């Protein structure tokens, strides 16, 4: 099977499973799992893409959490929120100096997913326990990355090597 066809099957089936699980037993936003899934692929896939994606996404979640916490402590006026988000944005770029965090967009996806989860759930960042939006977003990001990894493994397993690839392995 050609690679894109194999990935269509693996991503299609696993996307359906992800959607069903997040709608029934996993109280996490499916859109965050899909963002993490895309993050995995954009970072090159494989084990290294999974590690870099999760590390970057979680860094964005941590920066967003600190930003939202600062806004809640200082006061939520539009000016305060803008200043805090500006500082958080600068922190995301600075974080990319760390070798595993060089993909700034993956950090931003973690940040945005945390803010989005906060808005979607109506729960502030100060919410204790597993309902905390940062914990929910982190779980969704990790699960989404794992779905990406599984879809790649399955897709690759269904991919038939081309004639050129078969000839190269014989040499």
TrEMBL record:
Keywords: Membrane, Transmembrane, Transmembrane helix. Pfam families: DUF1097. The chain crosses the membrane at residues 20-43, 55-88, 100-122, 134-151. InterPro entries: DUF1097. The keyword Disulfide bond does not apply. This is DUF1097 domain-containing protein. It comes from Oscillatoriales cyanobacterium SpSt-418.
């Amino acid at each position: 099977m050609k690679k894109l066809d194999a990935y269509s099957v693996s991503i299609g089936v696993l996307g359906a499973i992800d959607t069903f699980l997040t709608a029934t037993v996993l109280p996490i936003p499916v859109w965050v799992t899909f963002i993490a899934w895309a993050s995995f692929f954009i970072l090159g896939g494989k084990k290294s893409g999974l590690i870099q994606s999760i590390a970057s996404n979680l860094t964005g979640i941590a920066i967003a959490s600190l930003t939202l916490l600062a806004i809640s402590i200082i006061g939520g006026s539009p000016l305060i929120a803008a200043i805090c988000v500006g500082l958080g944005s600068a922190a995301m770029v600075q974080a990319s100096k760390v070798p595993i965090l060089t993909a700034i967009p993956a950090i931003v996806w973690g940040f945005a997913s945390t803010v989005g989860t906060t808005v979607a759930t109506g729960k502030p960042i100060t919410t204790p326990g597993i309902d905390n939006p940062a914990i929910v977003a982190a779980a969704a990001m990790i699960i989404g990355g794992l779905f990406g990894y599984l879809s790649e493994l399955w897709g690759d397993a269904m991919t038939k090597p081309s004639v050129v690839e078969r000839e190269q392995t014989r040499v």
